[in-house]
């Protein structure tokens, strides 16, 4: 399918059909009688992801619009105000975020800060009575994830995690192939993501802000792939991490590999690295066939192959627009999100176990 011809209507049809048979990828729709309702989103953190992906996506969404911003950089506030016509009353800094409680223009806060700052902004937003969409990984510890979930529940607000690939049609197709047992039961998954990281002073290489290295940044994609392809939760993990540049990677891992065992006997071999490019996909092996996406995790260009010679190419969508529209649908329809805080917590628990396995050299029981 030509990506340019993959319309929003076709996307909705694809994901709705997938959701009907795959509860893990539930895609709720908005309540009837509210077709014109749009929720106001405020972005917390105006870095590259907000600037180049999320804010542009909000110009195309059906159920959302960019209503406000939160930044600690006054120059960015001025630029965004002019570019997106944001009123002064909808511009906040990190210390005034809780004042959103008095602002009906803002319904949802999208947290796009470094990992270790997610809990702080999420809890403040929840106390202000706002729903929260938080980038992944959810946080850098299990305890902070649990605090985020508790704060949103206490406030009666929804918490979603930015798992955009849950709404990406090619990944959805791979899940369909797994769950329909096209080639029998899954037996093994091979998944990985790596790239050579640049600037040695960036926050992703500081453990206090990132919580870890390549695993927390891109390894989570490989971990997620094993979970949404299998529909299972792993029961044990073993891992090895390596560092070849002890100066650049003095605080976080450079590369890491791990193996997961699932209740059905399925094995998953995974890897993440900040050392080299070319690893950006997954292959699923079943009893009598296989399928893969390579690349699997990017903002565009996702495609793959099947063992029967067919290609997997359902075109390109704006994944950020899709995830935000989905969350808005959930809020408007008063339905739970399928990418909840509990889903984010599960990944963080497993990643902490991966680090423990790498540190101790022992397999860690996840049950």
What does this molecule look like?
The chain has ten helices and 15 strands. A hairpin with a 5-residue loop joins β9 (255-261) and β10. By secondary structure, it is an alpha/beta fold. It has helices at residues 8-21, 48-57, 74-84, 118-127, 142-155, 169-179, 207-210, 214-230, 319-333, 341-360; strands spanning 39-44, 64-70, 91-92, 108-111, 131-134, 159-161, 186-194, 236-242, 255-261, 267-273, 280-286, 290-293, 304-306, 311-312, 364-365. The strands form two sheets. A nine-stranded mixed sheet has the order 14-13-12-11-7-10-9-8-15. Helices cover 34% and strands 20% of the residues. It has two domains: 31-164, NAD(P)-binding Rossmann-like Domain (Rossmann fold), CATH 3.40.50; 169-316 and 344-365, Dihydrodipicolinate Reductase, domain 2, CATH 3.30.360.10.
Strand content: 15-25%
Radius of gyration: 20 Å
CATH topology of the largest domain: Dihydrodipicolinate Reductase, domain 2
Distance between the termini: 42 Å
Number of domains: 2
Q: Describe the strand arrangement of the main beta sheet, using strand numbers.
A: 14-13-12-11-7-10-9-8-15
The beta-strand count equals 15
Overall geometry comes to: globular
Order of helices and strands: HEHEHEEHEHEHEHHEEEEEEEHHE
Q: What is the CATH architecture annotation of the largest domain?
A: 2-Layer Sandwich
Largest sheet: 9 strands, mixed
Structural class: alpha/beta
Outline the low-pLDDT stretches. 1-34
Number of helices: 10
Helix content: 25-40%
CATH first level of the largest domain: Alpha Beta
What integer is the average pLDDT?
Answer: 92
Fourth-tier CATH superfamily name of the largest domain: Dihydrodipicolinate Reductase, domain 2
């Amino acid at each position: 399918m030509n990506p340019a011809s993959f319309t929003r209507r076709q996307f909705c049809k694809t994901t709705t059909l997938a959701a009907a048979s795959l509860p893990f990828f539930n895609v709720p729709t908005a309540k009837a009688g509210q077709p014109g309702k749009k929720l106001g989103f405020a972005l917390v953190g105006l870095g590259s992801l907000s600037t180049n992906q999320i804010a542009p996506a909000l110009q195309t969404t059906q159920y959302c619009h960019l209503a406000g911003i939160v930044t600690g950089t006054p120059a960015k506030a001025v630029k965004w105000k002019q570019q997106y016509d944001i009123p002064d009353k909808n511009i906040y800094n990190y210390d005034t975020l809780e004042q959103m409680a008095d602002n009906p223009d803002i319904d949802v806060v999208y947290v796009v800060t470094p990992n270790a700052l997610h809990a702080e902004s999420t809890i403040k937003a929840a106390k202000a009575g706002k729903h929260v969409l938080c980038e992944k990984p959810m946080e850098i510890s299990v305890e902070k994830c649990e605090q985020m979930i508790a704060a949103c529940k206490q406030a009666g607000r929804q918490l979603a995690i930015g798992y955009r690939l849950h709404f990406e049609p090619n990944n959805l197709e791979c899940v369909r192939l797994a769950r329909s047992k096209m080639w029998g039961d899954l037996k093994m998954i091979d998944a990985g993501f790596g790239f050579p990281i640049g600037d040695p002073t960036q926050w992703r290489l500081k453990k206090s802000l990132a919580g870890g290295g390549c695993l927390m940044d891109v390894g989570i994609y490989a971990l997620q792939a094993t979970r949404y392809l299998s529909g299972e939760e792993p029961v044990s993990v073993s891992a090895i991490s390596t560092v070849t540049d002890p100066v650049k990677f003095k605080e976080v891992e450079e590369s890491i590999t791990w193996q997961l065992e699932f209740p059905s006997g399925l094995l998953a071999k995974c890897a993440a690295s900040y050392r080299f490019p070319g690893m950006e996909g997954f292959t699923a092996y079943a009893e009598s066939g296989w399928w893969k996406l390579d690349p699997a995790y990017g903002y565009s260009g996702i495609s793959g192959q099947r063992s029967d010679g067919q290609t997997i190419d359902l075109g390109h969508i704006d994944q950020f627009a899709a995830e935000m529209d989905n969350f808005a649908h959930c809020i408007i329809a008063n339905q739970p999100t399928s990418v909840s805080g509990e889903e984010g917590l599960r990944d963080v628990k497993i990643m902490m176990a991966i680090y423990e396995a790498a540190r101790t050299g022992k397999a860690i029981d996840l049950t």
